[in-house]
Design a protein that fits this description.
Elements: H1 2-13, H2 17-29, H3 33-48, H4 51-75, H5 81-101, H6 107-135, H7 141-173, H8 176-198, H9 218-237, H10 240-248, H11 252-260, H12 263-276, H13 282-303, H14 306-342, H15 346-374, H16 377-392, H17 395-413, H18 415-421
Helix pairs in contact: 2-7, 2-8, 3-4, 3-7, 3-10, 4-6, 4-15, 5-6, 5-8, 6-15, 7-8, 7-11, 7-12, 7-14, 9-15, 9-16, 9-17, 10-11, 10-14, 12-14, 13-14, 13-16, 13-17, 14-17, 15-16, 17-18
Length: 422
C-alpha cells in the first residue's frame, strides 16, 4: 500500500509545474467550498426559516456569474490571470462577511450578498476553467479531475462535520451567529493562502484578445444544450440539500454528518476512475452519474423524511463527482477542437458556455419557485428535484452525440488532434 502511494505521488510529481500549482491551489481553496456551498444556505435557513430566500440567494449568485465572466474577459487584457483568479477566491470571504453583517435577512441584503458571491464564482470559475484547459490535455484530463475530485471529496468528509458541529454546539451554548462569524474569518485566511499558492505558477493569459462572439459552429450548439441540462440541476442543487436537512433533520451537526457519510469511499473511487479511464470511457461515467442522481431524487421524493435525506446525500456524493469528472473533459475537448477550427481564443468558448449554464440554472430555480408559489415549499423540495433529474437524463444521449460528432470533425481538421482525442 505504501509503495502504491509513493508511486502515485511520484506520478503527480512528473506533471507540469502549472498542473501541480493549479491542483494545489484548488486543493487549498476547496477547504472553504463546503462552507460556501452548504453552510451559507443553512445560515439563511436558520435566520429566516424561508426556503424561498435561499433560492433567491442562489438566483442572485447565478445572475452575478455570467456578468462577471464578461467583465473578466475585458480585465484579462489588462491584468495577469492569477490576479483575477485570486480576486475570485477572496471575494467569497467578502460575500460571507456581508451576509454576517446583516441585522435582518431581508431580500435586498440577501440579494447583495448573493451578487458578490456570484462575482466571486465568476472570477474563480472563469479563470479556473481556462487554466485547467491550458495546463492539461485530452489524455490527462481524466486524471486531473479524478485527482481534484478525490481531494474535494476527502475534504467533504472533514469540513462539514467540523463546522456543522461547531455551529450547532455554539448555538446550544450561546449565539450561532458568532460561530458563523468565526467561520467567515477562517475562510478569509484560507483564501489568502490559496491566492499565495496561485502566484507560484507561471500562468499565461489568453493569447487572442477578442473573446465576445455570437455566432458559433453548429457543433458548439450541442454543448450549449448539454450545459443547459447541467444548469437545470445546478439551479438549486447547491442549496437543496441544506434546505432538506434543515427542514427534515433540523441541525447543522446533522447536516455535516450527512454530508460526510460515505465520502471516503467516493473519494477513493473517483481517484481510481480518473486514473484508469480513457477519453472514450467518459460517456459511460457520465451516464452512471446521471442514473445515480435520478435515483437520489426519486428516493427523496418518495420518502421525504430524515432517512430519505441521508440516502439522497449518499447517492449525491457519488453522482455529482462522476458527472463533473466526465463533463469537464467533454467540454474541454470540444473547445480544443473548435478553437483550432474557428481560430478563436479558448476563453471565448468558456464565456459563451456560461450562457448555456445560466439558462439552465434559471429554469431549474424557476421550477422550484413556481412550485413553492403555487403549491408549497414542501411540494417544491419534494418534486422539483425529480423533474429536473428526469429531464437531465437526456444529457446522456446529447453527450454521446457530442463525442461521436467530435471524431468526425477532428478527422479532416488535424491528424494530431485526432490521435489525442480517440
Amino acid at each position: 500500500m505504501l509503495n502504491k502511494l509513493k508511486k502515485e505521488i511520484a506520478y503527480f510529481g512528473e506533471q507540469d509545474l502549472n498542473f501541480r500549482i493549479l491542483t494545489l491551489t484548488n486543493l487549498i481553496y476547496s477547504i472553504v467550498l463546503p462552507v460556501i456551498d452548504i453552510f451559507v444556505a443553512a445560515y439563511v435557513m436558520r435566520s429566516s426559516n424561508d426556503p424561498t430566500k435561499v433560492v433567491v440567494y442562489q438566483l442572485t449568485i447565478y445572475s452575478g456569474i455570467p456578468l462577471t465572466f464578461l467583465i473578466n474577459g475585458w480585465l484579462l487584457n489588462r491584468f495577469p490571470i492569477k490576479v483575477l483568479y485570486s480576486l475570485g477566491m477572496i471575494l467569497s470571504g467578502v460575500s460571507m462577511a456581508i451576509m454576517m453583517s446583516l441585522k435582518t435577512l431581508d431580500i435586498t441584503g440577501v440579494g447583495i450578498a448573493g451578487i458578490v458571491m456570484g462575482m466571486s464564482f465568476g472570477f474563480y470559475w472563469a479563470n479556473r476553467d481556462f487554466l485547467a484547459l491550458s495546463t492539461t490535455n485530452d489524455e490527462n484530463r481524466n486524471y486531473y479531475y479524478g485527482l481534484e475530485t478525490f481531494f474535494y471529496t476527502v475534504i467533504a468528509v472533514i469540513i462539514p462535520v467540523m463546522i456543522g458541529w461547531f455551529i450547532e454546539l455554539s448555538a446550544r451554548s450561546g449565539d450561532a451567529k458568532i460561530a458563523y462569524k468565526a467561520v467567515t474569518g477562517i475562510v478569509f485566511v484560507i483564501t489568502i493562502i490559496a491566492s499565495a499558492m496561485c502566484f507560484k505558477g507561471k500562468f499565461s493569459n489568453p493569447v487572442n484578445k477578442k473573446f465576445l462572439y455570437f455566432k458559433f459552429d453548429p457543433y458548439w450548439h450541442k454543448l450549449l444544450f448539454l450545459a443547459s441540462l447541467k444548469g437545470l440541476v445546478q439551479g438549486f442543487l447547491v442549496t437543496a440539500p441544506a434546505m432538506l436537512i434543515m427542514l427534515l433533520l433540523g441541525q447543522e451537526g446533522a447536516l455535516g454528518t450527512a454530508q460526510s457519510i460515505g465520502a471516503i469511499f467516493a473519494a477513493i473511487l473517483m481517484y481510481i476512475i480518473g486514473r484508469i479511464t480513457k477519453p472514450h470511457h467518459r460517456v459511460y461515467v457520465f451516464g452512471t452519474g446521471l442514473l445515480l442522481f435520478t435515483i437520489a431524487a426519486l428516493i427523496n421524493g418518495i420518502l421525504f423524511n430524515s432517512t430519505g435525506v441521508i440516502l439522497f446525500m449518499l447517492f449525491l456524493l457519488l453522482a455529482k463527482p462522476l458527472l463533473d469528472l466526465a463533463y469537464f473533459p467533454i467540454q474541454f475537448s470540444v473547445i480544443d477542437i473548435l478553437s483550432k477550427k474557428e481560430k478563436r481564443s479558448e476563453f471565448a468558448y468558456i464565456l459563451n458556455h456560461e450562457a448555456g449554464l445560466y439558462l439552465g440554472r434559471l429554469t431549474g430555480a424557476g421550477t422550484f419557485l413556481l412550485l413553492a408559489y403555487f403549491f408549497s415549499n414542501e411540494v417544491a423540495l419534494r418534486y422539483a428535484i425529480i423533474i429536473v433529474a428526469v429531464l437531465q437524463l437526456s444529457s446522456f444521449w446529447v453527450a454521446k452525440s457530442i463525442i461521436r460528432d467530435g471524431k468526425s470533425i477532428v478527422t479532416p481538421l488535424n491528424t494530431q488532434v485526432q490521435q489525442q482525442y480517440v
